[in-house]
Amino acid sequence: MNILIVGVGGQGTLLASRVLGAWAVNQNKDCKLSEVHGMSQRGGSVVTHVRIGSDVASPVITEGQADYVIAFETLEAFRWMHYLSQNGTIILNEGQILPMPVIMGAADYPENIPQKIRDSGKNLVVLDAGALAEKAGNIKAVNIVMIGAFAKKCAISYDEMEDAMSSSTPARFLDVNKRALKYGYEPLDAD
Question: Does 2-190 carry CATH code 2.40.10.10?
Answer without folding.
Answer: no
